Amino acid sequence: MIALEALNTLPAADFAAALGAIFEHSPWVAQRAAAARPFDSRLQLLDAMRAAVDAALPEEQWALIRAHPQLGARGRIPAPLTEASAREQRRAGLEACTAEQWVHLDRLNAAYVAKFAMPFILAVRGHDPNSIIEQVERRLGNDPPTERRTALREIGLIAGYRLAATVAAPAGAEIVAMLERLERDGAPTERLEPDAAATPRLEPDAAATQRLERDAAGTQRLLEWMRAAELHVVADGRGGLVGRRYGDRPHAGTVVLGVHYASHAHALRYDGRIGILTGIALVQQLQEKGVRLPFDLCLIAPPAEADAEAGAAGSAVDSDALCGCVTLGEAAAGAADAEAARCQAALSAAGLSRETRVIVRQDRAGIFYRIAATPDPAMRTTAGTDAETPDSAMRTTAAADARASDPATRATAGATAGADATASDPATRATAGADATAPDRARRATAGADAKAPDPATRATAGADAKAPDRARRTNGGADARAPDLALRATGRARFSPDAALLDSAVRVLEQFLLQNQKHG
Questions:
Q1: Which residues are CB-contacts of 452 (< 8 A; sequence separation ≥ 6)?
Q2: Catalytic annotation on 232?
Q3: How far is it, in rounded angstroms, from Cα 238 to Cα 349?
């Protein structure tokens, strides 16, 4: 693999050569994307390459489509089969087709080419011969313009999977990019199906498939990213997704990601959207490093409504926040509140046994926390500042009042009862000669103050970076809140502005935890 940082510094010709195979026999895509450097994330690079295809001339798009081989067409492949295409077709089981399947697929390919004058193109990851045949049969009913657009979308998906296997990128930046994409897109642009081979076990009726199709915006993106990380993805029959990475030892058991056992509540809890994306990034990092584990990893992405209720959960950044594992059987004996019941039902729907292990998290301030999915009611405005910009202060699950006004205003001498006098933002005390106990951040937002430190409202002044996260620390019952804030910004609606370095730490800690606990497999 090649590092994204290295790609950003290569001469344009070398950049195009390194990525020339991402789009089949079409190095011009990488050549045009090179002009958009530098890229902060692999997802941003993929966007640039897809944009180059979208902006290409119609004849260039046709040439790209026709550069692809027919799926499983023995002895009559119209274009040379690249190593990537051969690997993808083997993975889908096309080389193991029965004689009857080969004959049927050849006939369908011929009918497709006769109607559309191009090869049938499908991102085959997650498919098997039967589901591929079903896809050809269904798409034969499309009109030519629709099918041309569908082919280009499938080519974009194929490119995403190839890029994930070619370019290594920092986990934190990828999580930030995925969060921003989910916020920006609002709704998916393409529909994917769960992995064909495993779907019948978890999708027993058509109604479950329809529920998946009606899922809220983001499910399709999650499915794409989970597959790009080499997870085998199925629908759980409840509107959620289950991704599995198989371990090296068949009977070593399974460790769950996306759900944890909360030590303070003695109950199962969803990790929330950031937790799901952290799991995807972790698995991608394991793939990039070639790290194998003895046990399976199972990532749970709950239905959209459960994800919305969980909000955006923070991730552990200290190793002592991960306190080992409990089995699902042991977790079931804990608190039986509504969220725990939903988690238990999702894990059962995924077909996980009572011996499946769930990570225990110590939910103390600054180590594991959640951010409300709505702006802080205590909004502050200055001239020219968006009146809906929320306080970017971190909220903690343990005894934190999500509706409280800016904690800095409670840190003055004589603060109201119950306010923590140590809760003022330490970043604002970093200016030369600043009084370490002075809570008012606005007073220190003058010229020369660190533009990253003050209140988001004060960052709206000329030259201040409006996206710099608040580095506020909160203390709760003496616990040291060492994690940077995953800030919320609002531009008409709540949006997340997470810290990539914090998310990088979260992925590293989780990886180290799994490696240290291999013996439990």
A1: 427, 465, 468, 469, 471
A2: no
A3: 8
Range of the domain at 341: 215-369+505-520
- Domain identity same for 326 and 288: yes
pTM: 0.70
Where is 210: in which H helix or E strand?
helix 206-213
Q: How far is CA 160 from the centre of its chain?
A: 14
Query: What tens digit of pLDDT does each residue of 414-453 get?
Result: 333 333 433 334 334 334 343 433 444 333 344 344 434 4
Give the pLDDT confidence score for residue 123 in this predicted structure: 92
Mean pLDDT on 472-479: 35
Chain CA centroid to CA 77, Å: 36
Give the confidence band of 345 by pLDDT, cuts at 50, 70, 90. confident
Tell the residue number behind the tokens 């998310």, with chain if given: 503
Per-state percent for the chain, helix, strand, coil, to nearest 5: 45, 10, 45
- Indicate which residue of 25, 68, 127, 232 is catalytic: 68
Looking at the structure, do residues 365 and 380 belong to the same domain, yes or no?
Answer: no
Check whether residue 361 and residue 382 sit in a common domain: no
CB 257 within 8 A of CB 301: no
At residue 199, φ and ψ (nearest 5 deg) are -60, -45
Is the same domain home to 12 and 118?
Answer: yes
Are residues 352 and 223 part of one domain? yes
510 and 361 in one domain? yes
pLDDT in tens, 259-288: 999 888 889 998 888 889 999 999 999 999
Is residue 44 within 8 A of residue 55, CB to CB? The reply is no
* Residue where a domain terminates, one of 169, 198, 233: 169
Q: What is the pLDDT of residue 218?
A: 73
Token pair for 360: 């225990």
Count up the domains in the chain and report the number: 3
